[in-house]
Fold Thiamine-monophosphate kinase.
Amino acid sequence: MTALTDLPQEFSFIHRHFAKLAGPAALGLKDDAAVFTPPAGRELVIAADAMVENVHFLPNDPPETIGRKLLRCNLSDLAAMGATPEGWLLTLARPPGLDDSWFAAFCSGLNADQTRFGLSLLGGDTTSTRGPLVLSLTILGSVPCGQAIQRKGAQAGDGLWVTGTIGDGALGLRVLQGQLKDPSGYLASRYRLPQPRVGLPLYGLASAAMDVSDGLLQDAGHLARESGLDVTITAATVPLSEAATACGPHWREICLTGGDDYEILFAVPPSHEADLQQAGALETPHGRVAVTRIGQFHEGNGEVRALGHDGCPLFFAKGGWSHL
Amino acid sequence: MTALTDLPQEFSFIHRHFAKLAGPAALGLKDDAAVFTPPAGRELVIAADAMVENVHFLPNDPPETIGRKLLRCNLSDLAAMGATPEGWLLTLARPPGLDDSWFAAFCSGLNADQTRFGLSLLGGDTTSTRGPLVLSLTILGSVPCGQAIQRKGAQAGDGLWVTGTIGDGALGLRVLQGQLKDPSGYLASRYRLPQPRVGLPLYGLASAAMDVSDGLLQDAGHLARESGLDVTITAATVPLSEAATACGPHWREICLTGGDDYEILFAVPPSHEADLQQAGALETPHGRVAVTRIGQFHEGNGEVRALGHDGCPLFFAKGGWSHL
């Protein structure tokens, strides 16, 4: 599309930075569109996410991690549906002042991650803006027909399980904002580079799943509501990393409500729970992922309860979580 | 993804405005991703485009047309490949100050167009921004396997053809900027609402195709370069609307170089040209579309020449078009 103000040399910019990310379906990023042949017998799983400077990332975040974080958030959406990554498209609105070395680092991070997670760039668009940097990423994955896991499908009596540890991303943001100390650097690294649980073998195990991006309690509410149930979480069982535990008990609320976890929250029927409890982990192409039972679904209408050590409901300042 | 600054009630915002646009594959816009079953025996054609306020549209453009223009630009990319529209995803970075009535009008325009062109919303994301409105749209279409038309493929001797009329969009922008008068309103309407040539029967007719978005001469250069040829355009044969002709001869250069046409530029082998010349139009599901022969491909290396009435090359102020 013609811009009212020209973005000079858009073609050479794209060639210089993005051509090396393009797979065969992208037709060299030179055509009007990519031509993608879906794998036989599989459905496509598609999601899009946007990130805005000063809203979703900090201007001084390393450029290597900014693009990767957006890609990983989208990969986490695929992981939640049990889908295998296939390709991605990127549009970016580029403010003045980001130079070639910034984009070289930005693309180098993306290149490392698309190799790691087995997908390639299909296409996109770059434009200029006088506002903040805005990135929008569309991801395509595939899943055998009928095997996509949705948020609805949990049954009363199913256990609520979660991968990895909860709260590191939210605490990492506070570390970067100077509100909290973490000499190990672990929490900031989890904020900047979430670990999408790509390849988690959910089909045949989970009755419902989603990724935790807006906060454990809020997202558990989405899972409960879409399944037409209530869910109760035993707060003490929510898995925390060593670094998160070291922050002390008054940061627990942030762990449960903060978001930016990109772990997978899933419902497991009782018939599968004993085996899963014994294994304590699931195998993925990217390594073993610890899984923990943190609660249970009940008849209801979408409410979340978090119970403290005494079995009494906990109440949190962040409004409305119990009546989402 | 958690925002550093909250966007309150994102869920109700999405439900209020976008849920009615969602097709069955979108899972009610409530899941992590959409699940799309590609039509059997067809390949997917995918493109993404972004639009930024004050760069690609004017702040006082009617909200009904802003979203439709972006959708139509993407539909034009599908049309250039000979693909049938299937679905779309939208992300938007939303500045303060755009109220509910703005988004109601924005979505109403999109709803009319997705009905008209036979596709539905698959998913997306909304975020806040302190900068200008940024829209990013990904479109999915399909084409029988092996039938996508690309920019490469033209042969020396093929004719260069174009749909509709050229220059209306570029002149329409000048009208809206107060540089030009057009009492009919036709040129401004063509700028705000391009007419994508969806369903143009290119397969078996065209050896290469693309849509004209960056200016006829520049885009003819892309077609020539991707096919490893030169192309010569006879300027007097480039079809102009009555409104564009009425602007007078000193606006012709803008017509040829201005962009925002969203017509289809395609190469036709000599064996098909006589029939096409006689018909003068192609049938699409959205009506007959006039087609005009404006030039010819030759052996070469990507140069474009535009010839005047006297057969001599024309030179234009807009730099570099002949050596793209």
About this structure: Chain A has nine helices and twelve strands. Chain A has two domains: 11-27+38-144, 159-316. The first helix of chain A runs from residue 10 to 18.
